[in-house]
Amino acid sequence: MSTVYRNILLPVDGSQQSIDAFKSGILLAKKLESNVYLVLVLDENSDEIVVNKREAFLGSLADFASKEGVKLHKEIIYGEPRSQIAHDLIDRWSINLIVMGATGKGRIAKMTIGSVTEYVLRNAKCAVLISR
User: Fold this and answer.
1) Which residues does residue 2 pair with via DSSP β-bridges, in sequence order?
2) What is the DSSP code (8-state) at residue 95?
């Protein structure tokens, strides 16, 4: 099947909205037969305990994708989430679509669209699907 959304980026941060967006992205990728790139962006100063927990978290999401019959590339990326998602990763993997949650983990972000999501929505060079 040929699709304009050949490469889908699914950034997660551990929030429930990002997990829900991930699941929606997996189901979409399954229907479109797209390549999927699952990423979690961490601060460069993250300690080993945080990294290990996040690797386990990504592993559980990869298991969900596998059960749906979707293979994916998963990776922890270090740096600033906004620029990594909206610019660097799009170029790196030729991303056509980003599927992400409307808000992240912050309390204030839950009242409005999250700052990372808003930045990606305004600056990404590809289509962005926001999930609530």
Assistant:
1) none
2) -
The rounded distance, in Å, linking the Cα atoms of 89 and 48 is 23
Find the CATH number of the domain harbouring 76.
3.40.50.620
- Chain-centre distance for alpha carbon 99: 6
Angle at alpha carbon of residue 26, lines to 131 and 8, rounded to 5°: 80
Look at residue 121 and tell me if it is in a domain: yes
Domain hosting residue 126, numbered range: 7-130
Whole-number pLDDT of residue 109: 44
Render pLDDT for 32-84 as a digit per residue (tens, 0 to 9). Answer: 999 999 999 999 999 999 999 999 999 999 999 999 999 999 999 999 999 99
Cα radius of gyration rounded to whole Å, the chain:
14
Q: What is the total count of domains within the chain? A: 1
CA distance 69 to 78: 28
pTM comes to 0.90
Tell me, yes or no, whether 81 lies in a domain. Answer: yes
